[in-house]
Structure formats: C-alpha cells, structure tokens
Automatic annotation (TrEMBL):
<comment type="similarity">
    <text>Belongs to the SurE nucleotidase family.</text>
</comment>
<dbReference type="InterPro" id="IPR030048">
    <property type="entry name" value="SurE"/>
</dbReference>
<keyword id="KW-0378">Hydrolase</keyword>
<feature type="domain" description="Survival protein SurE-like phosphatase/nucleotidase">
    <location>
        <begin position="9"/>
        <end position="202"/>
    </location>
</feature>
<dbReference type="GO" id="GO:0008252">
    <property type="term" value="F:nucleotidase activity"/>
</dbReference>
<dbReference type="InterPro" id="IPR002828">
    <property type="entry name" value="SurE-like_Pase/nucleotidase"/>
</dbReference>
<dbReference type="GO" id="GO:0005829">
    <property type="term" value="C:cytosol"/>
</dbReference>
<dbReference type="GO" id="GO:0046872">
    <property type="term" value="F:metal ion binding"/>
</dbReference>
<dbReference type="Pfam" id="PF01975">
    <property type="entry name" value="SurE"/>
</dbReference>
<dbReference type="InterPro" id="IPR036523">
    <property type="entry name" value="SurE-like_sf"/>
</dbReference>
<keyword id="KW-0479">Metal-binding</keyword>
<protein>
    <recommendedName>
        <fullName>Survival protein SurE-like phosphatase/nucleotidase domain-containing protein</fullName>
    </recommendedName>
</protein>
Length: 311
C-alpha cells in the first residue's frame, strides 16, 4: 500500500447486505472521505454459520446501490464474500488494504467467536494475507437503537485509521487479525482495552415444537439476552407423523467459565465493564498449554506395547 494513496476498505458482514450495522458502517466510512469503500456481503442473514464456505456451485454477485461505495450482494457465507471480495476478480483487479466485517448486531466474545460469521469474514481475509478487523456491537433489544450502531462505527474509526496507517508503513503484524467489540452503552464507553479471548458461553438447549420455527432477529444479538422470543412460522402440513421438529432455546447463562476467568483482560469481562475490547486472534484456537504434558505421556503409552497390554 502506497503511503500517499487513498486506502481501499472492503466491508462485509454476516447479518446481510441490508443490515443496519453494515449500512451505517459504510456511511461513516464514506462520510470520513479518507477511504475507497467497496462492499461484498451476503444477500441474506448468515448469522451463526461460522466459517462455512460454498463449494459445490457457483455464486452470483448482484450490484447493490449503496451511496459512496461499490457494492455487491452474494448468496453465500461471510467467508465466501470476504474471499471473493479480496480476490481481485469481483472489483476489476482491486485488492483491498483492509477488510472490515460488521458491524454485527450482537457481541462476539469467548467461545461464541467459533460460531460467528462476522469473525469468520475477517478470519478468511486474514488467512488470505489481507489485514482485517471484525466489528461487533453489544446490542440489547430493550436498550439499543440504530443510532447506537452509528456511534459504534464512529467509535471504531480510531482503530481503523491507526490500522491503515500501520499497514501503509508495513508495521501491522500479519500474524493476527483483530476482533473488536463495542459495549452496549457506547456513548459512555471507557476507551479501548487489549483483551484475550475468554471462555464465556451461553447455554443453549433444544425444545420440541409443532412447527418449523426461526429465531427472531440476529442469533448473536440474542446470545446474552435471557428473554429471547421465537416467531413460529405456519405448521408444515405435509410433515409425516414420524417427523418431529426441534428449536434452539436460550436457557440460562453459563457463568462457570466467567467465574474461573478473573483476569481483567478477558474479552467478555472487559466488555461488560464498558470497554471497547480489542482482541488479537489467529486462524486457529490452540489447546490449553497445560494439557500438553498429558498428551505427550499419552502418546508414549500408545507407542509402548507393554503399556497397552496392561489395560
């Protein structure tokens, strides 16, 4: 990236190209007048699909009008969109300097990062050698508004600008990408805090139902809300008597992992305290280091026939 050139930013997400979070992020970027903005995002909501990709069939790219940006909607996953967007094929040879995935309606902390399509969009770009940032806002249905999403986008501008500056001077570490979460009360956030991925996890169970159902709104937006509501679609009259339907339900928050994590730099804990959390991530989640001695001894026992014969 030429330090004197206007940087190109690709925006993607998992909530879909019509989602308010993406539209407001693009609006904030365009209004800043410092970037060339291109968009490649899912044609529909792809929340919770993780890092899935489309392999068996071709994907269409439909132009979408977004003021100040060149945009395409793709009927694929966030990883598909990020991969296509940085390939140089979709945007006539243009390869972005930075990929932004979001802003997601709902936080992405702890183990939920594994499910997150928002994080997957950024991870895909990272794995292809393009610096990237996943952006999420801690949406709470009874408190949040689209205005908060815009404030969240504006609050992330210093991170975006600094990242692009580091990229232009070839100082940004390519061994990581960033996962950024903005607290619900964005107007009174306490600033940026470097954090590490924790183990927070919402307990989700299953409940039998009589019809095909869908979770209302964005899946990750509801992760930390206990009163999630379901909208039941009309019953499928053609279903056989043997066929049964089950829906996911949010049960109670599993606080065990959070209680074990006393460090102040855990992503979920810092977010709840009002900080904008900045968590460097890699492509893979590594095993806890203290399990290595166990597995080392275990493999030695497998390799030693005398140990196996004693079982």
């Amino acid at each position: 990236m030429d330090a004197t050139a206007i940087p190109t930013v690709l925006v993607t997400n998992d909530d879909g190209i019509d989602a308010a979070g993406l539209r407001l992020l693009v609006q904030v970027l365009v209004s800043a007048g410092r970037y060339r903005v291109i968009v490649c995002a899912p044609a529909s909501d792809q929340s919770g699909v993780g890092h899935g990709i489309t392999w068996r069939h071709a994907l269409s790219a439909t132009p979408v009008e977004i003021e100040g940006a060149t945009a395409f909607a793709v009927p694929g996953t966030p990883a598909d969109c990020a991969s296509l967007g940085i390939s140089g094929v979709l945007f006539n040879g243009i390869i972005p300097d930075l990929v932004l995935s979001g802003i997601n309606i709902g936080s992405n902390c702890g183990y939920h990062i594994v499910y997150s399509g928002t994080v997957a969009g950024a991870r895909e770009a990272f794995m292809r050698g393009v610096p990237s940032i996943a952006l999420s806002y801690g949406w709470v249905g009874s408190k949040s508004s689209t205005h908060d999403l815009k404030l969240a986008a504006e609050a992330c501008l210093p991170i975006i600008n600094s990242t692009l500056n580091e990229i232009s001077h070839k100082k940004f570490p390519l061994q990581s990408f960033l996962n950024v979460d903005v607290p619900t009360d964005v107007s009174n956030h306490k600033g940026f805090k470097l954090t590490k991925q924790g183990k927070s996890m919402i307990k989700i169970g299953w409940k039998q139902t009589s019809s095909s159902v869908s979770i209302e709104g964005d899946a990750t937006a509801n992760m930390y809300i206990s009163n999630v509501t379901d909208t039941e679609k009309k019953s499928i009259s053609s279903q056989s008597q043997e066929q049964r339907w089950f829906k996911r339900v949010v049960q109670v928050k599993d606080d065990n992992s959070e209680k074990e994590e006393e460090d102040d730099d855990i992503d979920y804990k810092a977010l709840q305290e009002g900080y904008i959390t900045v968590t460097p991530l890699g492509a893979l989640s590594c095993s806890e280091i203290d399990t290595l001695p166990y597995f080392r001894g275990w493999l030695l026992r497998i390799a030693d026939p005398s140990c196996s014969s004693s079982l």
